[in-house]
Fold each of these.
Amino acid sequence: MVDDSRSELSTARLRLAAGRAALGRSLRPSLRGAERLGHLLRRPGLVLSLAILAFVFVAAAAPTLLTSYDPYLTVPADRLAPPGAEHWFGADEIGRDLFARIVHGSSLSVQASSIAVGIAFSAGLVLGVIAGFAGGWTDAAIMRFIDVLLALPSLLLSLAIITAIGFGTIPVAVAVGVGIMPGFARTTRSEVLRVKTLPYVEAARLGGASRARTLLRHILPNSCGPVIVLATLDFGVAIIAVAGLSFLGFGAAPPAAEWGTLIANGRNFLVTAPWLSLIPGLFVMAVVLAANHIARTLEDGRP
Amino acid sequence: MSIRPPLLSVRRLSIAYRAGGSLVAAVQNVELSIGRGETLAIVGESGSGKSTIALAILGLLPANARILAGDIQVDGGSSVSMADVETLGLRGRIVGFVPQDPMVGLNPTMRIGGQIGEAVTKASGLHGRRADAETIALLEQVGVDEPALRARQYPHQLSGGMRQRVLIAIALAGNPALIIADEPTSALDSTVQKSILDHLARLAGERGVALLVITHDLGLAADRADRVLVMKDGRIVEQGPPRAILTAPAEAYTRALIAAAPALDGKGLFGVRRASRPAGGELLRFEGVSKRFPSPMTGEPSRASTALDNVGFTVHAGRTLAVVGESGSGKTTICRIALGLEKPSDGRVLFENRDISGLSWPEFRPLRRRIQLVQQDPFASLDPRFTIAECVVEPLVSFGLEKGKGLQAAASRLIDLVQLPREAASRYPRELSGGQRQRVAIARALALKPELLFLDEPVSALDVLIQSQILALLDELQRALGVAYVLVSHDLSVVTSVADHVVVIRKGRIVEQGPVAEVFGDPAHPYTRELLEATPGRRSAALVAV
Amino acid sequence: MTRYLLSRTAQALLVLLGAYTIAYLILYLLPGDPLAILLNAAGRDIDALSPAEIAEARRFYGLDGTPLERYFELLWNALHGDFGFSASKNAPVAQLILERLPQTLALGGLAVAFSIVEGVGFGYLAASVRSPVLARFLARLPAFGVSLPSFWLGLLLIHLFAFTLGWLPAAGNDGFRSLILPAFTLSLYSAAIYAQLLIRGLEAASREPFIVTAYAKGLTRGEVQFRHAFRNAALPIVTLVGLQIGNTFSGAVLIETVFTRTGVGRLAEEAVLRQDIPVVLAVVTLSAAGFVFINLLVDLLYPILDPRIDHASKG
């Protein structure tokens, strides 16, 4: 048995002990709103990440706020124009503004990724909670099913789904969502299992709480943290997967262009106009980095 | 007095931890010295800074610690700034270290022999066969049976006591002049603790090694040390030979520590501590209860491991029955069976003469208003997302007994009952100290006004002073509410301060039971005597009594 | 131990059967007429065919009979190495895969080796650095590796090393030199994941009490790191390599396309574009088989690496 109060070796506990010594035995004050804002401003990485995601969601909802160019307007004179004052990110082989195409592409990419994470989150949560809470035979059956899904590499599982239901933004979203669902189910289940055995859950049961009350008031609120972290992390994963599938040409039909499609289009001009491929890719990377950073912050900040 | 300089002296040591951007003092202006062959004990509660001093001497402070000031002098050599202690190369050859928890102190993926041999090679340069031979010799010296076999095993194959012996062998491998032992046995059962401390003291005596023992237990310190140093909030409060400290404590804090250790306060362990009260009617009875768990090897219940074997006892209304035993004795299983969390394999459990051992969960539910539990670890027994008010009234909500205003009133009443400040109602568990949390857990258990309360090691996670406060609260509540307690504990001093009757249990069997004064005053069974002798503070109590 | 081996192998085979079944269900039973899709892949329009021709085509593609009969027939054939006929390539699927498999195995195998060396090497280095500022910086780098779309990284590397510097070929599959860029591209994501896990693991291990014991023996930082922290921190990576291997290999679909190599991945990409169901089913099944086999191997090896796991007693 490790007695919490007696063990002082680990850093975390040392910090705890130091804090306790300083504040005495009185109640510790809670963090006030202004302090929280101060903490936020001391983390430029987090602020930048939030800004990038905000930009992307605004671009998805109202692209015309961010660019006045028409993404489909061809200007032969600007063919393969390099990045500059007129075309921030340059122009493509038929003179369409790349910045406008990226901004307008956000809508499709964000939509697809959100649907994918939504599918994975809801299906995974339901399966994981049922498996973890019911236990026994139900748990075994659900987890074998998840094991089988995990044995299929997610990209190939997505390809099989696309083969069956066809090309386009929605099929790509569904395919990616099914591909990342098993991770949600597993994380949810292991969290539910962990929380289920904690003393406060037993205390609630002994205090007469029904199974439903125990699940809804104690187990779910305390196990959703890691699942939300995973959802944020998987938003980034979904962005890359969606971009990959549209890069292969399985996404929306031209002239609409997701970010992956833009990268694929630029391939043919890698020697003469490398920015056509490289800039959309940098953009994807920035969005994924932002999602990962926020996920990590959420993870560290959990009580 | 010796003219020789002390083996190690530390002067004006101040250490702080960085926590959330600010520095929090952990050790302030501490001076200490240890002579050759001397045993010094540092006593303090958690957060007193005692472990920080040990880590500083070893040069192993965590990264967020900062040494603000202090010098260290080894064997009369020149004074060196404490911050440069690593360059002195004290670890291993001059100072050996025995860590706190043997279960996690050894590398789980490395053989025992390799872990000792590594220390041997580092200290003496021996390799191969000669290092192996030295390793086996060390294992033998620390009292490990079959040393050649143990050397080939991994830590998880050894018991806790055995692992602690291995850690002592590692500390001895470098032939150090000083061994620092940080709570070396607080994770072990008291009988194992005693034999290991005896062994360590003997080895240190034979080799003339000085010992620096760090402990929360004043009794243990007084029993073992030549000199005791009491710390509080990073400062040394008092120091001196054990006898002086115990008989004439200069500081209020030391007096409080002594008062909180029943073994030390002069009345002895077994003085009648509470006025005897009329025994109430019979409330709960165990009749020949056995529990066998299916063996994890085969899953067959026939070759099962027996957790309880023919256990019988009676709990009376308004009284306290204590169940005493070491880890693995089956005392927790008793709790779980009484609360309907496990079904007995044999025997009956009667609550007011009604057999409750076969009840299903819904059938048991009405009884939950009459039988409740306080759990061991107050850091895990409260939902972190509930406010304190929500925590304490949850049983009332579950049973639909109160709503709205009534619920608020009930919360205030319960918070008052366990003597917490009213402001606590809107706080979250993480904002409370361990003792405060345990008060919340007690309030929650009392919300339904039960007649019987199970207390599963209710104070073992708390500091000594907080322990005695919680025990006093429990005593007061019993007088006020007439609730009966079943107190499960490994700690005899806890038991003697609150129990009326005691059941001593070992490996699932009751070895002895009866009124506390009888069982502990005149133990009939050798195991009870062994337990009593292993209780820290026994020797010192004799000192004080003279 | 034998019992454990047998039960574990049986489990693995069941998972493989399950994976095949799910792939079959997706490809043959989801909305969309498989016959129309297959005819389309063969370059023919179902509306232009007479009922007799449709019936014949149905028989040819094994689409007559109930779905259950078809499932068992396809499974039986697959167990005999017959994965059907590719309409778009006009060749038996098994032959197509066998021709291209060596290319993909070489690429994927090299990528797995690269990823372990890069990930473990970088992670160990990042955790060994003494300067806290540098250590924090290094610990954050893998986050970039995880955020890079691999196909885009491939293009970037082609741009740099093939077009600009001219050191390595931009495409094709002739010899080892043409493997370096694609294998590195493919390896980076997994490498970054391994590095992150190792850095976290070493950091967690450094807070373990047994590390304090090791330091107290007088061991140096390097000795403690290598002998005590590394082994404990590296164990989870073994499991992760097993789980990640499927993703590394399936990434070949994108990377073979970027580097225009002829391999199974490219075959899969073309098959999806032409909706060539038998090819897709075969590739998916094959990859699941590889995944199951590798993880069976990891499971069987694990007790040797971690003494705490003892399967003999678990039965």
Note: Chain A touches chain B at residues 1-11, 14-15, 17-22, 25, 27-30, 198-200, 202-204, 206-210, 213, 217-218, 221-222, 303 (CB under 8 Å).
Amino acid sequence: MQDSLLQQGVDLMLLGMGTVFVFLTLLVIATTLMSAVTRRYFPEPEPELAKKPAPATAAATVDARLLAVIKAAIDRHRSGK
Amino acid sequence: MDTFLNLWQDSGLYQITGGQFTMILVGFALLFLAVRKSFEPLLLVPIGFGCVLANIPGAGLALSAVENALYAADPQVLAAMAGALGSGALESAAELLYAYENAGSGARLAVRQIAADAGFSNGMLYSFYHVTIASGVAPLVIFMGVGAMTDFGPLLANPKTLFLGAAAQFGIFSTVLGAVALSAAGLMDFSVADAAAIGIIGGADGPTAIYVSSLLAPELLGAIAVAAYSYMALVPVIQPPIMRALTSEKERAITMTQLRRVSQREKIVFPLVLLVLVALFLPTAAPLLGMFCLGNLMRECGVVDRLSDTAQNALINITTIFLGLSVGSKLAADKFLDPKTLGILLLGIVAFAIGTACGVLMAKLMNRFSKTPINPLIGSAGVSAVPMAARVSNKVGLEANPQNFLLMHAMGPNVAGVIGSAVAAGVMISMVSGMGIS
């Protein structure tokens, strides 16, 4: 009886650990495959692309206004002389 | 004078037993750990309070209607019950209870009917326990919430880290062997089912431990849950010495390459892939991993934000309250004050230490063969305990190299550990019930 209890424990350990490793190995393979397929055939549009034009125009308008202010300041400075 | 005597005999002071008094002190100790030391307060506050409630003498909050009727010891009710069980009318309450537990379903039904007719009802905590844990519902709902809180991004960016989650489960299975060896040596009396439930503590995953022990060893549930949650709180104390002992200064300073960006679509497909694999190879893990995948899909798919929000906030909080109280109700004196509890606490910490060590060793092995460097410290995060174990990896890494942030790298093995311990739980359940001893 005692021996068989120990035997059951050993069985549980070997089979259990084996199953965990086999299952997670399968999961690694499946995940790698899934990622490869998804990235190759269903790539997502890069979110950075959509964002880029917005700050560019904002920077441009600021630049234009700044330019006008600087111009006016220079003009005044020069006319003042 | 008679009224006064009745009042005195109804008081807790008159009825209290030494065991109940000790368990109330244990409950207060748990509350102290939770409130003062911030040990998993979300669970230990309800567990500790449930423990105190369950041991209030005479209130019978954790007892069924039949037990309440037996302890109330109304001679007429006792005689009726003895008649239904077909035993002598002069048996004591304890003998009747034993007869009831071993009676056929017809006699049990009759006894329950007698108790109900006499006006006895199930205690509040007993009802909570039946709804949340005996049915298996609460741990599964919590697992759904955990799924909704989990980001698989770091794992998807580096799927190899799943092996670390697998290696750390060795703690579970070696503890099973330890528990069985203890009973073979005649020191404790654990069956294989008990041993399996105790081993799951090494998975460092509260809901999984509760789920497995509710199926395999309900009478040990209180001790197992308390051990699991206490050790989860002790992760920052238990793990670092083991991690330092098994790695060199140089290994701890290894910097890992930046993780790639993982697209939304990969994150949506992953829980479905996991679900299909579970369905094909390990249906016994389907309740745990199925709910986990559902929660994660709700998080990532982006069209049911309201459901995802409920699962990871309101629902998980409600469930935690009742789960904690129900676990507390299992901390009754006659079950907890037993040398087995000491064995469980001892085996639990061994399970935890072995799991940590195996994770670190596996990471060292992978570092040897991998093209990209792997810091062995992330291996210890393979025992679940999300996100505490990952934070510990990060902290120990920063000690060796202040520029090295391992947190995101450690999250991969960390969530892999959750999957790993759920898989281990499924294997245990199917194998132990296959042995026909559960």
Note: Chain B touches chain A through 46 residues (CB under 8 Å).
